[in-house]
Amino acid sequence: AQKITQTQPGMFVQEKEAVTLDCTYDTSDPSYGLFWYKQPSSGEMIFLIYQGSYDQQNATEGRYSLNFQKARKSANLVISASQLGDSAMYFCAMSLNNNAGNMLTFGGGTRLMVKP
Amino acid sequence: EPEVTQTPSHQVTQMGQEVILRCVPISNHLYFYWYRQILGQKVEFLVSFYNNEISEKSEIFDDQFSVERPDGSNFTLKIRSTKLEDSAMYFCASSASTSGGLRRTDTQYFGPGTRLTVL
Q1: Cα–Cα distance between A51 and B118 in angstroms, integer?
Q2: What is the DSSP letter of A71?
């Protein structure tokens, strides 16, 4: 079964600095997708960025980029120029190609706190 | 921008009562999902649904749970006899495609959630 690990339960970052949130995954399947979601204190889950296992380039979406290292099975989220509004929980998730229903498996999350 | 909506935002019920959580997925999406998040814990998959059938379900999704697409826009989750441990945030999600994450259109967009409190 697939597994997602986020080893940083909480992190601080100074406003305007960059921060990296770690995510490692465990699967023997070569075909999968990786997703990052943001959950602010209001509770909703906001999609941030996607990386497919066969994508040749690392994904970028505005201030978000994904440092995808397939051999190491890691998909770290990089947030550049942190803003106070980035303070939230961040979840890494994976979907496998052999899942009929496209279910997402989530990591335990990292709470990011941006200091002014 | 299209979004997934959920009602109610908060539901309080007595143990043993039936609850129905409602969702309106993004209009051109064909694949629908329910997840739950117990307070302070990770998000857990419950069920996926396509073409009026369940595609996949987790061990959590037992006989007390059911899903339905009663019309062209709504997608519902019913819990027949609620237990204290059903207290959680329930998220509905939808996607345009499903290829196990190989396409960006597999991205699941989540609704704002329904917080269910069972007393």
Answers
A1: 38
A2: T
DSSP SS3 for A67: strand
Q: Which residues in chain B show pLDDT less than 50?
A: none
Q: Residues A6, A64: contact at Cβ < 8 Å?
A: no
Q: What is the mean pLDDT of residues A57-80?
A: 96
Q: What is the mean pLDDT of chain A?
A: 94
- On whether any CB of chain A is under 8 Å from the CB of B3, the answer is no
Look at residue A100 in the predicted model and tell me its pLDDT.
Answer: 67
pLDDT beyond 70 at A99: no
Q: Distance from B98 to chain A by nearest Cα, in Å?
A: 6
Name the residue of chain B whose CA is nearest to A36's CA.
B107
The amino acid present at B36, given as its one-letter code, is: R
The torsion region of residue B110 among left (phi > 0), alpha (psi -120 to 50) and beta comes to: beta
Mapped to the 3 state alphabet, what secondary structure does chain B carry? CCCCEEECCEEEECCCCCEEEEEECCCCCCEEEEEEECCCCCEEEEEEEECCEEEEECCCCCCCEEEECCCCCCEEEEECCCCHHHCEEEEEEEECCCCCCCCHHHCCEECCCEEEEEC
Q: Using CB atoms, pick whichever of A42, A99, A109 lies closest to residue B100.
A: A99
How far is the alpha carbon of A25 from chain B, nearest alpha carbon, in Å?
Answer: 14
Report the percent of chain A where pLDDT is more than 70.
Answer: 97
Residue A90 has pLDDT above 90, yes or no: yes
Which token pair is B35? 């997840």
Question: For B34, which residue in chain A has the nearest alpha carbon?
Answer: A103
Q: Which residue of A has its CA nearest to B40?
A: A108
